[in-house]
Design a protein that fits this description.
The protein has 230 residues and is an all-alpha fold. The chain is built from 7 helices and 2 strands, in the order H-H-H-H-E-H-H-E-H.
Amino acid sequence: MVEKEQPLPQSLFGIIASFGVGGVIRALIYTLGGGVLFGILGYIAFLNGPGSTQSELGTFWRVVVATLMIPTYAILGGGGGLVLAIARTILNHTENVEILLNRFVNPLMALLVEKLSPDKGVPVDEYMGQLDEKIERLQYEKVSAFAGPTRWLYRVILRVFRRFAAKNLLSSIQSRGESLVTRIALERFIREGLVSFLREEFEDQIDLIRYGVYAILGVLAGYPIYLWFH
């Protein structure tokens, strides 16, 4: 008897739960720690800027600025800490990310092979010339059958496949002593490497988010430090 596959929401919940208590604790520490630390930095920035004795602001406007500045620093610090905690937890559990990606990609693999395979064996450069048209047609013929976020995710997978093929198809074909893209070669190429490539692309996006958060927090932290020494 074939085991019934869990619905995607249940599967997603299980994957998130598998991140464990450590991920939750990390998120709390990063969020609270970031909020407190940047709240203090916001207070320092206020005391050495708008709230300094040299400021020309009156008492009312100093209170207004303090009411806005210090909580804003704390919220941005806590939010940044939460994002960094989530990113670190995800990167520490890439095997779970790959499980989730498999849930999305596996139903599409047979469709990719069916619709993207050439009619006959063709050289890689010729096949790549046909690929954009094939992917565009596949999006409108099949992906439209899916609804909402699922449709969007499948379209993303198709766009990523274009980059995956451009980067790896030639070397994959040549590594087996072949020179033509055939249905069998394409199926092997998709099943052996697409999910791993998707995971790497996802991890790269997570890293970009992390670096962006570091840059924002660095600017926020640098401002009060600059005022402190000037």
